[in-house]
Sequence to fold (464 residues):
Amino acid sequence: MLEFRLFRRLTQKARWHIARPLFLAVLMAATAGPGAPASALSLIRDAETEELLRSYATPIFAAAGLSPRSVNIYLVNDNQINAFVAGGQNVFFTTELLLEFDTPGEVKGVIAHEVGHIAGGHLARTQDAMRGTGALAIASMVLGVGIAAMGAPDVGMGVMTGGSQVAQRNFLAYSRSQESSADQAAATYLDTIGESGAGLLEVMHKFSGQEALNARNQDPFVRSHPMSIDRIGALEARLEKSPFRDKPEKPELIEAHDRMQGKLYGFIKPYAQTFRKFPASDTSIKARYARAIAYYRRGDTQTALQETDALIAQSPDNPYYHELKGQILFENGRVKEAIAPHARAVALKPDIPLLRVNLAQAMLSTEDPAYLQASLQTLQKAMAQDPEITFGWHQLAIAYAGTGQEGMAALASAERYFRSENRRDAYIHSQRAMKLLPEGSPGNFRAQDIYDMVKPKHRNDIIE
Fold:
């Protein structure tokens, strides 16, 4: 979960930031420097959005011969429409793309196309430059290229520099032949899993007229995925032969897609804009979800809870409505009341670690010793499921400290900073953990691993 204030673009120079994941969890943010807030970048996490995207992507990954577990999906909080693959098997989607594409088929088409680039080896020329680069750095490079092409080269280069010094202005400039190859691969994958490719074709038609525009007026998706009439024609000819071309989407999937869009809109866009787009006369699930979040962000807690309770009454087994209620209560100081809805969310979706972290945070925030052991166990399970939840390590450190396990608290902090690429603090806390944990213990070995990965390679190196 993320509180709205964390969506503001951060401006501290050359630092990685960790934000409390209260709903859409900001993992990290980096900027070009003071006075350039437009260049800031954040990766976000949201269990509901991730689950839906995974449901779209997993069959496509399998059809392409990829292990679904080996492909990472990242959400980039950015108001430009874009999707890209970089740094190996890492697929990035901007939030604006998810808001712009209104059907599951369009997003599936984009995923299939990007997987075509992975399976086709189209990223080989960037692998050496990107090796060892973190997800945020990769996204910084891609979006920095887009900003530079829009007529702000200084800001664009600042974004790229904030992510990594190895950024190349053309590193996602795929050739038209590679684009056509990825299209045909996408059509094959979609046929294999019995899905229509009409969504991908619709995406291409939406952007087909933009190549004649000045680069600064083009969407980044067009700049990194060059369109052509021949390319679109070839895909149309292929889809004409597909027995699944006109296959409709399942109603429940369309509703889940609408919920995702309503949630993202409610949290990302100004709440006044949300009320304009979704007036009270709009009684769709998407509109009601978006308005509930907008009321919460506006500070109208009573109305937000009323709207959320109405959604729960209609769909009592939707874990994400309970998660939202827990967040609203938590953020308004009703911490103990927040435990029950968060616990209900976990009961409904026990395999979603982000929900467990939310529950543990609520329990720890009561400062009631009675919740300490339960919160510790909840966090241990969550972090075993998904060790990339940076804020989870922060909460785990608190839980360990509360139970007197200072060595494990230091190790959890080391994990937190290591995974957020804060080498300096990872170095400090791993040293402390090594001193406090028994030699030969698994915790001590892990602390040594982190220490070895972040320690200066030369005596005069400075850890930043």
User: Anything to note?
Assistant: The chain is about 60% helix and 5% strand. The chain has a mean pLDDT of 81. Residues 4-240 form one domain.
